[in-house]
């Protein structure tokens, strides 16, 4: 029986819940939120959407003992109003730090032996902090990292070149935030290096477009949710299917001493191994800067 708990049912958490149900990614789904009655309301709404559909998922308002039996905890608390006024995800930490401390203690006191998939911003910092607070093995705490940023980059390139975004090979790496960057030296289309297709100025424009996409969406609709829900679902699928999929998640880098977005092999036991991209000199400097940004924000070094 595949069991998932979702902590935090704002725009992102609720969309993740809907995506999990639509894709039948689990057998039982437990929902948690600090707002009284919200978990029960989401249970009712999601359950109504399952009538006359094939398959079945048990959807329940969660209690703390349900953490013990969960295979995956999706950690999704947040305050989108912070990003509606700013364009730096690090500014969310003052609020989300308290959420991590509250739930990190509860998870540690439970008998949870599964995997945490953390969405909450700042993504790399919260994933790192949750691992320290819960004491779970590093390979069993995973941030969504730069999966979404990589998807945005691929979409931008696909529109420019009039191709399917799935035909773009490459990654956005480092912080899920303002110090992220596209590893252009490793981006290719059908093995052809991107710099043989587009000039550096065109790539630079696409990179800037990738960075600001989220904030443009937030400005227009108040939040983003579908892309990050898909990113979360990809990790869940890789875990439950033991597919050993390479995804640019936020996982612990032994070399750099922090969680940071980079390609890693994901399967039933969480992070199975990670991949260090071959970067050019400029990209290596960007990577170092991003590591410093993350480490300077960590409350526990």
Structure report:
It is a single chain. The chain has 301 residues and is an alpha/beta fold. It has 2 domains: 141 residues, Rossmann fold (3-Layer(aba) Sandwich); 152 residues, L-2-Hydroxyisocaproate Dehydrogenase, Chain A, domain 2, CATH 3.90.110.10. The chain is built from 10 helices and 14 strands. Strands 3-2-1-4-5-6 form a 6-stranded parallel sheet, with helices on both faces. Strand 13 and strand 14 form a beta hairpin. The two termini are 37 Å apart. The mean pLDDT is 95.
List keywords for this structure.
single chain; 301 residues; alpha/beta; Rossmann fold; L-2-Hydroxyisocaproate Dehydrogenase, Chain A, domain 2; 2 domains; 6-stranded parallel β-sheet; 3-stranded antiparallel β-sheet; 10 helices; globular
Number of helices: 10
Number of E-type strands = 14
Mean pLDDT: 95
CATH architecture group name of the largest domain: Alpha-Beta Complex
Helix fraction by DSSP (H/I, runs of at least 4): 40-55%
CATH class of the largest domain: Alpha Beta
Largest sheet: 6 strands, parallel
Number of self-contained structural domains: 2
Strand order of the biggest β-sheet: 3-2-1-4-5-6
Using the coordinates shown, work out and report the CATH topology of the largest domain: L-2-Hydroxyisocaproate Dehydrogenase, Chain A, domain 2
CATH superfamily of the largest domain: Lactate dehydrogenase/glycoside hydrolase, family 4, C-terminal
Indicate the low-confidence ranges by residue numbers. Answer: none
**Strand-residue fraction?**
15-25%
* Class from helix and strand fractions: alpha/beta
Overall outline = globular
Q: What is the succession of H and E elements?
A: EHEHEHEHHEHEHEEEEEHHEEEH
Rg from alpha-carbon coordinates: 19 Å
State the distance separating the first and last CA atoms. Answer: 37 Å
